[in-house]
Automatic annotation (TrEMBL):
GO molecular function ontology, one term from the record: fatty-acyl-CoA binding
An individual GO BP term: fatty acid beta-oxidation using acyl-CoA dehydrogenase
All copies of domain Acyl-CoA dehydrogenase/oxidase N-terminal, residue ranges: 25-135
Family membership noted in the UniProt record: Belongs to the acyl-CoA dehydrogenase family.
One Pfam family named in its UniProt record: Acyl-CoA_dh_1
Protein name in the entry: glutaryl-CoA dehydrogenase (ETF)
Domain Acyl-CoA dehydrogenase/oxidase C-terminal: 242-387
Cofactor: FAD
EC supergroup of this enzyme: oxidoreductase
Record's catalysed reaction(s): glutaryl-CoA + oxidized [electron-transfer flavoprotein] + 2 H(+) = (2E)-butenoyl-CoA + reduced [electron-transfer flavoprotein] + CO2
Domain Acyl-CoA oxidase/dehydrogenase middle: from-to ranges: 139-229
E.C. designation(s): 1.3.8.6
UniProt source species: Streptoalloteichus hindustanus
Length: 395
């Protein structure tokens, strides 16, 4: 029996369990379309965007034309794809950079979803078509300087003044904040936590971009400042009161992370595998040494397990059966393993692993943030701990 060609071996190693064979025709089409867009439009520029700490605003309408913004929502210009199709898109986007996937996740799952799920018909018609097209950008204001893992302790408040609402507070680490035409801001009221749509340009509402980041550099991250921001009564989302609102939005976005982490891990694995096959030491490729093969196999196993987990959660979500605890398991496992894969890939590349000529260190740096945002690994661990013991380790 003849040996497989090197390119065949490499291709099979990435998806050795043939997980992509489980996808439907539409989902494979989405994967191919997004991968081509990323290859043509993003990969030639991403290193410079990362170094310059920018994500061009003009990407938004390009992503909109591909139907990627709010793609798992229906109506109002949204594509209405399956949850698994949305996940596949997130995988291909994050294979390029976590910042790109974050832009799409925040736009669709954190800004558009609450309007779609909890907004009035007037709010949906005003905002969703433009956001789906990428003509309007949204952000999600929940985290505060002193309120990260405990969003229930938020200080941002909204009080009634006649028929108006008046908002005061600060939101921190807000993706897309400096780009956003509308912010979905969550605030305490006498009735409970409520969501408010705050258009850019509203008096008292300003944003300040956060600089000097060592991670997620190809992503705009900002502080939102609300000083006596007066909004009309119909700026409030009418469909939800309480923490169920923002937490349901986070669950939507975490699902995208489960898939996106697979994309980042895949790129790191592919890079390390290619390097190991061509880099020679002691007279032969380092991929022929046992310790390097052990690293590659460990990466291969975890990558394929993560891909299977993402697909399974996608099928559960499409069936309407996905629970928050299952999403926590997916986010905890896939991001943790993706970060381990990125770090292991860096060791295979040696000193070249820290060079911008290779994507590994950029992905590793980004995944350090992904490990923390939208629920730290510790919080997801305790969510699962509560699920299995019935005992709460935190409020």
């Amino acid at each position: 029996m003849s040996a497989a060609a090197p390119e065949q071996t490499a291709a099979r190693a990435v998806d050795i369990l043939d997980v992509d064979r489980l996808l439907g025709d539409e989902e494979r089409l989405i994967a191919g379309t997004v991968r081509r867009f990323v290859g043509d439009r993003v990969l030639p520029e991403i290193e410079s965007w990362y170094e310059d700490a920018v994500l061009p605003r003009e990407l938004a309408p390009e992503l909109g034309r591909l139907g990627l913004l709010g793609m798992h929502l229906s109506g109002y210009g949204c594509a209405g794809t399956t949850a698994t199709g949305y996940g596949v898109a997130c995988r291909e986007l994050e294979a390029a950079d976590s910042g790109l996937r974050s832009f799409v996740s925040v736009q669709g799952s954190l800004a558009m979803f609450p309007i779609w799920e909890y907004g009035s018909e007037e709010q949906k018609r005003r905002w969703l078509p433009g956001m789906a097209a990428g003509e309007l950008v949204g952000c999600f204001g929940l985290t505060e300087p002193d309120s990260g893992s405990d969003p229930g302790s938020m200080r941002t408040s909204a009080r009634r003044d006649g028929r108006d609402w008046v908002l005061d507070g600060r939101k921190m680490w807000i993706t897309n904040g400096g780009l956003a035409d509308v912010a979905v801001v969550w605030a305490r009221t006498d009735e409970g936590v409520r969501g408010f749509l705050v258009p850019r340009g509203t008096p008292g509402f300003t944003t300040r971009d956060i600089h000097h980041k060592m991670s997620m550099r190809a992503s705009v991250t900002s502080e939102l400042v609300l000083d006596d921001v007066r909004l009309p009564e119909d700026a409030a989302l009418p469909g939800v009161v309480g923490m169920r609102g923002p937490l349901s939005c986070l669950n939507e976005a975490r699902f995208g992370i489960v898939w996106g982490a697979v994309g980042a891990a895949r790129t790191c694995f592919e890079t390390a595998l290619s390097y190991a096959r061509t880099r020679k030491q002691f007279g032969r490729p380092i991929g022929g040494f046992q310790l390097t093969q052990q690293k590659l196999v460990d990466m291969l196993v975890e990558l394929n397990k993560a891909a299977l987990l993402a697909f399974h959660l996608g099928q559960l979500k499409d069936a309407g059966a996905l629970t928050p605890e299952q999403v926590s398991l997916g986010k905890l496992n896939n991001v943790r393993e993706a970060l381990t894969i990125a770090r292991t890939a860096r060791t295979i590349l040696g000193a070249n692993g820290v060079s911008g000529e290779y994507p590994v260190m950029r992905h590793a740096n980004n995944l350090e943030s992904v490990l923390t945002y939208e629920g730290t690994s510790e919080v997801h661990t305790l969510v699962l701990g509560h699920a299995v013991t019935g005992l709460r380790a935190f409020r």
